[in-house]
Write a structure and sequence with these properties.
The strands form 2 sheets. A two-stranded antiparallel sheet has the order 1-2. Strands 3-4 form a two-stranded antiparallel ribbon. The protein has 314 residues and is mainly α. The chain has helices at 2-15, 37-50, 52-64, 67-82, 84-95, 118-133, 137-165, 211-227, 231-243, 252-288, and strands at 26-27, 30-31, 294-301, 306-313. 33% of the residues are buried.
């Protein structure tokens, strides 16, 4: 089943490559020939590492470029937390019971890939493998950026934000009359329960924000920007997320903030990646430009000499 999904997604991705890979670059009548497979793969990997500082710079710029917008979003997050007991109660009572489907289980040996995560990770692997086979730079770039978005989501949300927020998860159902059983809570302001860093999913004080929402939205944003399509990536990750809905023990604000953080991560990676590729392509163009010299050889006769006068113009 696992390999069928990889193959199907790879074929789908290959058929959807409607954009050029920017391997045939034209600039001032100069054309660079398509690079060989391993050179393309090497340049993609190199660009992914070289763009790391730009990734975080773009994230910082998103936050600092418009402080009014950032303040508005911050106020919105506080507002979401304030109404969390109502929204999460509605989620527990009216939304989750009406979503009852599961995707076939795929066993994963990849660390931190659990449950339905395989439906996100293995298609990315398939996309990269298929793109490497047919020497498609675009597909390789998208796959590598998607992997980076997952890695950044893990570091930023799972390790940093969850550890700083240390928010307890909501008890089901949050609005019923049953007594609270620790480490669950019915208090949406139950932050600051510091217990160190949780490298694995779940556990007490690991509610805010949702790692799955962060990583899924980060991947969706990468695909949306790279292929200029909203419907396919967001519909796909939403379907995968909801297939395992009852395992996401979160307040509604955890999910929404996770989606926001993931969107910032995915967007920043794509912007930084494009800048790095543009820089590489411009350098490649400049290296392939040929210096053209027009030569003239003019006979010259005078009282003192007989010879030729050489003129070279560039």
């Amino acid at each position: 089943m696992k390999y069928c999904i990889i193959i199907l997604f790879t074929l789908f991705s290959i058929s959807g490559f409607s954009q050029d890979d920017s391997l045939n670059v034209k600039h001032d009548s100069v054309k660079i020939k398509k690079e060989k497979r391993f050179k393309v793969a090497g340049s993609v990997i190199a660009d992914s590492f070289l763009s790391v500082p730009g990734d975080f710079s773009a994230m910082g710029h998103t936050i600092s470029s418009d402080w009014k917008r950032t303040a508005l979003y911050t106020a919105g997050i506080v507002g979401l937390i304030a109404v969390d007991k109502h929204t999460t109660g509605f989620w527990h009572e009216s939304v989750e019971p009406n979503i009852d489907y599961h995707l076939p289980h795929i066993e994963s040996n990849i660390p931190h890939v659990i449950g339905a995560d395989s439906y996100i990770v293995y298609p990315i692997i398939g996309l990269y493998a298929g793109s490497l086979i047919i020497n498609n730079k675009k597909g390789q770039v998208v796959a590598v950026n998607a992997v980076k978005s997952l890695a950044y989501s893990y570091v930023i949300t799972q390790i940093v934000l969850k550890s700083l927020a240390a928010r307890n998860r909501p008890q089901r159902k949050v609005n019923d009359d049953r007594p609270v059983v620790e480490p669950w809570t019915k208090d949406p302001w139950d932050f600051g329960n510091y217990q160190g860093i949780h490298l694995k999913h779940g556990g007490p004080a690991t509610s805010f924000p949702s790692f799955h929402a962060t990583s899924y939205f980060a991947v969706a944003k990468v695909f949306q920007m790279e292929y200029d399509n909203y419907w396919i990536p967001y519909t796909f990750v939403t379907a995968v997320f909801l297939s395992d809905i009852k395992s996401h023990e979160h307040w509604v604000s955890d999910l929404l903030v996770g989606g926001l953080v993931g969107t910032i991560i995915g967007r920043s990676i794509v912007i930084s990646s494009r800048k790095q590729r543009e820089k590489r392509e411009l350098n490649a163009v400049s290296n392939h430009k040929k210096i053209i010299m027009h030569k003239q050889l003019i006979p010259q006769i005078s009282n003192s000499m007989v010879g030729f006068h050489f003129i070279g113009t560039f």
